[in-house]
Automatic annotation (TrEMBL):
SUPFAM superfamilies: Ribosomal protein S5 domain 2-like (SSF54211). This is Phosphomevalonate kinase. InterPro entries: Erg8, GHMP_kinase_N_dom, Phosphomevalonate_kinase, Ribosomal_Su5_D2-typ_SF, Ribsml_uS5_D2-typ_fold_subgr. Residues 152-212 form the GHMP kinase N-terminal domain. Pathway: Isoprenoid biosynthesis; isopentenyl diphosphate biosynthesis via mevalonate pathway; isopentenyl diphosphate from (R)-mevalonate: step 2/3. It comes from Ascodesmis nigricans.
C-alpha cells in the first residue's frame, strides 16, 4: 500500500438520520423480501477540524454530551502486504464503530499519514437517548451524566446514524473528490458497521441513514464476506474492489402521504434484539413451510401497505390542498361518514388503517409461535389505547424486531387546533412511554454548515 499524505484538510460537517422499520421486521434479513423504512428527523452530527494540540497522525474523536467519557484518540500508520491502514487506539474505551470507520475510510483512500492532526466532534440530537424529566426544554444537544455505553437508547438506530455521519464527514474531510460519492459512502458505512458488529446484518438502518426513507431490499451477505477481517494481507485491494463494485440491493425512495405523520414513543424498556432475532430465525428454520407461509403473508401485507401509501399520495395529489385537509379532518371526526366527493380518499385512509392492523396481528402471531415477545402485552395495550382514544391515529406497530424498545404510530396530523400531540402524550404517559419530538424525514445523509455548530465544539 502506498503512503499518501493528505495535502489539505477540509473542515466538514455532516449529519445522518435515525430510522424506523415500519414494515418488514425480520423479513428484511432475507433478500427475497422487502421492508418499509422511514428516516427520522433525529440526526447524529459529525464536525471535523484541524486539531492544533494533537500528536502527528492522530484523529481525536470527541462526544462532549457524555460527561463521564468524552474523548477517544487514534493513531494511524501504514502496514505491510497491502493490509490497509493500521488504526491504533491511544485513549478511551473501545468504540468499534468509530475505529472501524476510520480504518475502512483511510484504507479505501490509501491514507497512512495525515498532513495535520484531526479532531472530529460527534453530537447527537436528544431523541436518541432517554432524557431526564424537566419542566423546561432541553438544550439542543443535552449533556448526559453517563458514558455512551451506559446511556439508555431509544431504538432509533444510533450506531448506523453515527457510522454513516462519521463516514461522510471523514471522507469529505480527507478526499478532494468532487463527484457524487454517496454510493461510495453507503458501501463504506455498511462495511464498517458490519465489521464493528462482527456480522453482516440486513443493512436497512445504514441504507436509511444514507438514502433517507426508502423501500429496502438487502444485499447478499456474501457481498461483505471478504472484507470483514481487516488488517490481513491484500485487505486494501479487496476493500477497494468491494466498495467500488455495483451492489445488488434496492433502496427505492419513498415518502409518507400528505398530512400523515410518523410518531415515535420511547418505552424505556429495551430488548435484546440479537437474542430475539436468533429465536425467530431458529423457529423459521425448524418450521419450514409453515414459517414460509407466515412470512409470505406478512410480506403480502407489507407490500399492500406500501401500495396504499402510494395510492393515498396519488389520490391526494389530484385534490387541492384545502379539499384534502378538509377530507382528512372529516375522516378523523367521523370515520363512517361518506361526505360527498371524499369516498376515494376515505377508502385510502381506511385501507392504511386496516393493513396496519393486519400486519400487527401477523407479527404478534409469529412472535407467539416462535416464543419471542415481538409485541408484548404491554405494547398491545398501548397501541390499542391509541387507536381507541386518539381519533387521528390510523394505527401503530412495535417497529423493527419488536419488543420493549419503542412504538411507532401513523396518524393524520391535520387538527387545526394542534391537539393531536397532546392526546398522544396523554395516552403514552399513562403507559410509561414518552413521545419523542422526532418525525419522519425523507432526506438521508447531508453536508451541513460548520458554523452552525459554534458553541458545541
Amino acid at each position: 500500500m502506498s503512503t499518501t499524505a493528505t495535502a489539505t484538510v477540509t473542515p466538514t460537517a455532516a449529519s445522518a438520520p435515525g430510522k424506523v422499520l415500519l414494515a418488514g421486521g425480520y423479513l428484511v434479513l432475507d433478500p427475497a423480501y422487502t421492508g418499509l423504512v422511514f428516516a427520522l428527523s433525529a440526526r447524529i452530527h459529525c464536525v471535523s477540524s484541524v486539531n492544533p494540540d494533537g500528536q502527528a497522525d492522530t484523529i481525536t474523536v470527541r462526544s462532549p454530551q457524555f460527561t463521564k467519557e468524552q474523548e477517544w484518540v487514534y493513531r494511524i500508520s501504514g502496514t505491510e502486504s497491502d493490509a490497509g491502514t493500521a488504526v491504533e487506539q491511544l485513549s478511551g474505551s473501545p468504540n468499534p464503530f468509530i475505529q472501524k470507520a476510520i480504518l475502512y475510510i483511510l484504507t479505501y483512500l490509501s491514507i497512512t499519514t495525515l498532513h495535520s492532526p484531526l479532531k472530529i466532534t460527534i453530537l447527537a440530537d436528544n431523541d436518541y437517548y432517554s432524557q431526564p424529566p424537566t419542566t423546561t426544554r432541553h438544550p439542543r444537544f443535552n449533556n448526559l451524566p453517563t458514558t455512551i455505553r451506559d446511556a439508555n437508547k431509544t431504538g432509533l438506530g444510533s450506531s448506523a446514524a453515527l457510522t454513516t455521519s462519521f463516514t461522510g464527514c471523514l471522507f469529505h474531510t480527507l478526499s478532494s473528490s468532487s463527484s457524487n460519492v454517496t454510493e461510495t459512502i453507503h458501501n463504506l458505512a455498511q462495511a464498517a458497521h458490519c465489521s464493528a458488529q462482527g456480522k453482516v446484518g440486513s443493512g436497512f438502518d445504514v441504507a436509511a441513514a444514507v438514502w433517507g426513507s426508502c423501500i429496502y431490499r438487502r444485499f447478499p451477505a456474501a457481498t461483505l464476506s471478504s472484507i470483514l477481517e481487516s488488517g490481513t494481507p491484500g485487505f486494501a485491494k479487496r476493500l477497494k474492489s468491494v466498495v467500488d463494485a455495483r451492489w445488488e440491493y434496492e433502496a427505492r425512495k419513498t415518502t409518507v402521504p400528505r398530512g400523515f405523520r410518523v410518531v415515535m414513543g420511547d418505552v424505556r424498556g429495551g430488548s435484546a434484539t440479537p437474542g430475539m432475532v436468533k429465536t425467530v430465525l431458529r423457529w423459521r428454520e425448524e418450521n419450514g413451510e409453515k414459517a414460509k407461509e407466515r412470512w409470505d403473508a406478512i410480506h403480502a401485507l407489507n407490500m399492500e401497505l406500501i401500495g396504499w401509501f402510494e395510492e393515498t399520495r396519488r389520490v391526494g395529489e389530484h385534490m387541492g390542498e384545502e379539499e384534502y385537509v378538509k377530507a382528512a379532518r372529516e375522516y378523523v371526526k367521523d370515520r363512517d361518514s361518506l361526505a360527498g366527493g371524499m369516498e376515494e380518499i376515505f377508502r385510502c385512509f381506511e385501507k392504511v388503517a386496516e393493513t396496519l392492523g393486519k400486519i400487527r396481528e401477523q407479527m404478534r402471531g409469529m412472535g407467539e409461535e416462535a416464543g419471542a415477545g415481538i409485541e408484548p402485552p404491554a405494547q398491545t395495550e398501548l397501541l390499542d389505547k391509541h387507536k381507541e382514544e386518539v381519533k387521528s391515529v390510523l394505527g401503530g406497530v412495535v417497529p423493527g424486531a419488536g419488543g420493549h424498545d419503542a412504538v411507532a404510530l401513523v396518524l393524520l396530523d391535520v387538527d387545526e387546533e394542534g391537539r393531536v400531540e397532546e392526546e398522544v402524550k396523554r395516552v403514552m404517559s399513562g403507559h410509561s412511554c414518552t413521545m419523542l419530538e422526532t418525525r419522519e424525514e425523507m432526506e438521508g445523509i447531508r453536508e451541513e454548515e460548520v458554523k452552525g455548530y459554534e458553541g458545541y465544539l
